[in-house]
Amino acid sequence: QVQLVESGGGLVQAGGSLRLSCVASGSILGINAMGWYRQAPGKQRDLVAVITSGGMTNYADSVKGRFTISRDNAKNTVYLQMHSLKPEDTAVYYCRVMVAGAGYWGQGTQVTVSS
Q1: What is the number of other CB atoms lying within 10 angstroms of the CB of residue 41?
Q2: Are 12 and 90 in contact (CB under 8 A)?
Q3: Alpha carbon of 18 to those of 29, 35, 113: distances in Å?
Q4: Residue 27 confidence (pLDDT) above 90
């Protein structure tokens, strides 16, 4: 089993910054891609950013230039640095990790951006 614990969410004013963290533990030998998704009320869960084990990244168009995903393999941790936050970034942010072909979700962390 794989456990994911997210942290770093909160309330921030528009234009502000937040940094999300997600720590993986348990049966995590061979972590592949790590990523962040978000789900706003009444909407589907969408990909925000993903990083492969080799460090390649991909971002949703809506966050390019504002968000940066990174990972620390020694700490089994993935980060999402968010700058220039907008009210439309308000959502629950979920960490997702691929291990041996199986995907695991974190519990989610709320990000609220006030105008």
Answers
A1: 7
A2: no
A3: 29, 16, 10
A4: no
**CA distance linking residue 5 with residue 108, whole number of Å:** 8
Residues 6+ apart with CB under 8 A from 61: none
Distance CA 96, CA 20 (A): 13
Q: Tens of pLDDT along 77-101?
A: 999 999 999 999 999 999 999 998 8
Distance spanning both ends of the chain, measured CA to CA? 40
Q: What is the mean pLDDT of residues 107-115?
A: 97
Name which of 37, 11, 32 is nearest 76 in CA terms: 32
Can you tell me the distance from the alpha carbon of 2 to that of 10, in angstroms, rounded to the nearest whole number? 25
Burial of residue 106 (number of CB atoms within 10 Å: 0-12, 13-18, 19+): buried
